[in-house]
Amino acid sequence: MKNKKYFVLFSIALLLVVISLSMILSNQICLEEKTQSGEFEDSNVIVLGFSQMGDESSWRTTHTKSVIQAAQQSGIQLIFKNAQQKQENQINAIRSFIASKVDVIAFTPIVEDGWDDVLLEAKQANIPVILSDRRIETKIPSLYAAFVGTDIELEGRLAGEFLIRKYGKKPTKIIEIAGTESSTSAKQRAKGIRQAIAGYPNFEIVFSKSGDFLRSKGAEVTREGIQLYPDADVILCHNDSMALGAVEAIEEKGLNPGKDICVVSFDGEKDAIQALKEGKLNCVVECSPLLGEAIMECASALATSEPYRPIVYQPTRVFSEYDNISEIQSWEDE
Ligand code: AHR
Q1: 55, 112, 134, 239, best to mutate for ligand 1 pocket (most atoms within 8 Å of CB)
Q2: 44 — pLDDT class (breaks 50, 70, 90)
Q3: Which domains does the chain have, with CATH numbers?
């Protein structure tokens, strides 16, 4: 009897999930079809073309959800394209937005270089561009109008400050599991960490290698790092996915993550906050992916030539073993 009741409840929940997913998908497909001709049904509605770089982490999927939800709530027509981790796909997506004559383009650049040509095309077509989460390297700053994200260099400095608080002047060996090469998040976190520990010669980054922001690669690179430096004190991962992979690699070695070796991370996804509560992570520097609302506000101002903020940073918090951990909540729970 009890089992039957659970089965019915589970079936209803599953059905609701399938219905909402198909509504979101059909909405997106329909939006893409409408743009084939370069015409939009209602010329009063703002059309935003958004190129997401992929879905490599929980952070990224939450960022995507935030953009889709905020567009629906603000009445902005969204054309969403996922580049599946390829810059080439992002460039093609931006070209298709230009051909479709959208009002505004937004994108999360997977790496910093290589955007000038396509953004010049957007500029010639008078379509303003918003960068979200990551930045670009360019000699022509007018290629984009605004940036909506977090202060990633500050995140790096905060991680370094946590290490200074924990180790002070004690000799400390760090293994760094970096993010995707040439991405803003990897470059600026690395820079911030080094800035913070610059006055402390007791800290030594003995090994640094990219784990591409992926959990599996985070585990793989950690195995390599601790094999080469078994006496390392800290595993410093550029995101939570890689830190959760590092925890697996440390446990495989028969060590206790968080105790035998300190693990520091960035993001604040639910599983990482749980690992912090279990004592397997020592510090998580938050990077909020909830950027959708600010992107829509900016897109709407740009499309209607209203004043807008060219740089919008979401605030950053530090969650660590020094806090009242039971009260910490992830943005995934918001
Ligand atoms: O650019 C933001 C970073 O990219 C996040 O820290 C990471 O999880 C994501 O993949």
Answers
A1: 239
A2: confident
A3: 41-150+289-303 (3.40.50.2300), 152-287+318-333 (3.40.50.2300)
